[in-house]
Each structure stands twice: as C-alpha cells, then as structure tokens.
Amino acid sequence: MRRIILFMSSVMIAASCGRGGYSQQIAKSDSSMGKIYHIKLITMDPGHFHAALVQKIMYDQVSPDVHVYAPQGPDYLQHLGRIKSYNSRPVNPTSWNEIVYTGPDFFEKMLAEKTGNVVVLSGNNRKKAEYISKSINAGLNVLADKPMIISPEDFPALEAAFATAREKGVILYDIMTERYEVTTILQKLLSQNTVVFGVLKTGSKEAPAVTKISVHHFSKIVSGSPVLRPAWYFDVQQQGEGIVDVTTHLVDLVQWECFPEQILNPSDIKMVSAKRWPTFISKEEFKGVTGFDEFPGYLMKDIKNGKLNVFSNGEMVYQIKGIYAKVSVEWKYQAPQGGGDTHYSVMHGTKCDLIIKQGAEEKFLPTLYIENIKGLTMNDFASELKEVIKTFPYDNLQIEAINSTTLKINVPEKYRVSHEDHFGQVTAKFLEYLEAAKLPEWEVPGMITKYYTTTTALKLAKGNSH
Known about the structure:
Blueprint: E1 3-7, E2 10-14, E3 41-44, H1 50-53, E4 65-69, H2 74-88, E5 97-101, H3 106-113, E6 118-121, H4 128-137, E7 141-144, H5 155-168, E8 172-174, H6 182-191, E9 210-219, E10 221-222, E11 225-226, H7 247-258, E12 269-281, H8 283-290, E13 303-304, E14 307-320, E15 323-334, E16 342-348, E17 353-357, E18 367-371, H9 378-389, E19 398-403, E20 406-410, H10 419-436, H11 443-464
Parallel strand pairs: 3-4, 3-6, 4-5, 6-7, 7-8, 9-15
Antiparallel strand pairs: 1-2, 1-5, 9-16, 10-11, 12-14, 13-14, 14-15, 16-17, 17-18, 18-20, 19-20
Helix pairs in contact: 4-5, 5-11, 6-7, 7-11
C-alpha cells in the first residue's frame, strides 16, 4: 500500500503499514454556541477534473486535510497536480493537505477507515453507482459529479441509495453547476413573472415549449492548462453516452426553471423521441487530448474507418407534466478561436420568448434576449421589464433594444462567474444542506426523475439505432 501526503505546494511520499488515518463522524454542535459542522472530505478515485474544482477554494466548515483513495495511475496524479496549482497560485492560494492511499483495495480501505464524512465522486462513471450505494450504506454523505448513473440498469440502485440515505440521515446530492449561471437565473425569474412572460406554452413535438442545447469540446483549457483526458473518457461504457452525461444538466434546468420547488416523479415524464450519433476522433486528435499514441484495446470496438466513433451526442424530446421539452448535447473536438462550450436555451411564453445565446455574436458569453414580444409596444414592454428586474437580486441590469422585436439584458461583469467557480457555489450550498441535515423536499424526487429521464432516453435512442 502507499500513502502520499501533499502539504501546501509540495508532494511527500511516505510508506504506511497501519491504518494511518483518523475517524471523524459528522456531528451537529449546539447552534446556540455558534458552532458549525466540522466537515472532512474524502475524494474517491478522481478521474475527472471536476473533482479538483470542488477544492478550488477553501470553506470555513471544511478541514484542509482531504483523504484521497484511488488506484495507481495517471488520474490521481493529475488530480494532485491541480490541487497543488491551487495551493501555489499567487492570488488567494488554498491550503489543502492531500493524504492519498493508492492500494488495490482503495475503495474497501475508504469504507473501512471512514477518514471523513463527505465522499466526493468525479471520475469513471461505470463505477459510480457502486461507489454511491456502498458509501451511503456506510453512512457517508456523498457529493457526486454528474451523471450519477449512465444506464437504465443502474436506476433501481440509485433509487435504493436515496432511500437508504434517508434512513441513515445522510445526504446524496449531485453537482448542478448550471443553476448558478446568472443568465439562467434571470431566465428562470422572468419565466415565473406573468407580467413579462405570461405563462409557459405547452408546445408540441415539432415545436417544444422549452429547448436546451449544449455544445462541448474534448480539447479545452481548465484552470489555465490544457485538459489531459483519460483514455477511458472516450469509452461510452465507462464515461456514458452523451445523452446521459451532459444532458443531466439540461434536464435538471428544465425541471428547475419550469417547475421550481415542485415535487416531480417519473410518472410526470413521457418520452416522445430520442436519438444518438457519434463524434469521429482521429488518432492524432486522440493523442492530442490523452497523450496516447494508440487507441487502447477496449476502444477497438468503436473504431470504424480508422477513426474512433464516440457516441457523445444525443437528443431527446419528452413531456414533463404535459409540457414538451427538447434537450440536445453535441461534442466537437475543439472550440473555434476565442470560444468554448456553449449553451442555448429558449422558453416560449404567451407574452414573449426568453432566449439564451452564447455564440460568436455574444463573444461566447451567455446572453439573455427577450424576443417575439406580444400585446404591447416595445416601449411599453421595456418599461414593464425595467420595473420587474428592479425586484431581482442584481443591481445595474441594463435593457438594450436590439431591433423592433428583441431586447437584450446586459449583465454587469461582477455577476459573470466562471463555470469553474460554480463548483465552489454548489459545494457551499451542499454544506448548507449538511448543516441543516436535510435537502429541500423537492430535491430528491427531482434527482430521481432527472435520472429516470436521461436513462429512459438512452434506452429509446439505442432501440432506435438498431
């Protein structure tokens, strides 16, 4: 076995034959004494850079000592490198102390030692259902990157994990960063305002009431450095197909915006159509983002005409409580110059449409437009909109007329929080839930419904592909 301890900006390697850890169970202190929870994080098998982004900042409630359990290999070393970069950066450096166990029994060791009370999961998704179930059974809280599951077969286990979490008084929660994007928040707030938006239309299969489209890229820069992705990231049996991966965010936003704080159930979902298609990756492109000269053996099943076929793209149309929604995700190799991942979202109301665009015209910044205004002159509508946005928790929002039918909301730079920084916001909210010892009553039914939606779409799309 081997333990690696990362102090501040240096890495020290030490052998350990004993337990070498400590136990700390979550315990609520007397709130009248002004005390809070003492949280100790456990990072399990970090294979995705999102695991590190949870630690891009420090939290008052969280111990700087973080135990990492992982198999030998490049994944955990890259994770340590990212943490080291946060510890050594010149502005607002962190002070994490990573204590790493890399024995072959790393998962069993974590369950036995319980060196913390919150397990952070962000890595190979094929193993995630097992990691979640056994961590919850051990009485540990779990903060999981999306997706929690990638196949319909894992859905019953996820339902059971939520039931066990309730019985044991622990929290299982997924990292929904897109809820913290300012234009998405504004879109949600406006969609709930009947003066501006009216009510959400029902839509149809051909013209859904809500559409959310996300474009992502395999080659990207994170925390100032190019992402080196593990080779397994390109195996949909390990990472998951696109229709159950990034779509998790989009399905979540449909629920969160259209039915805020409402309890949803799988019975509210009716899948209408679903499809999947591959992104073609050349050997040179694969090497560019993984460092591998050749495709590993487990990817040979996906090689056609010399290129890797990655089923990272998917689209679904479904009804949620009778409202038609469309969700689509597409992966490309690399973004255009100056660009990055993009998000498009439209909500059709009886008085206007709320549209988020993030293309070249917007300089790749999410921008909220109000289009197809009905029943009022542009000046009258703009006056009403100005009064409504004064009630929002943002100051200095500016309305700009684009043309005779379109307005744009200009958001001050101080509210432009990066995708990376959203991970800290999600984690801070999770810590609030830990302190309260519960989630809002709608969150767990919403998560169950969300993963029912994505896995049902995959099942339908794969059926259609044969």
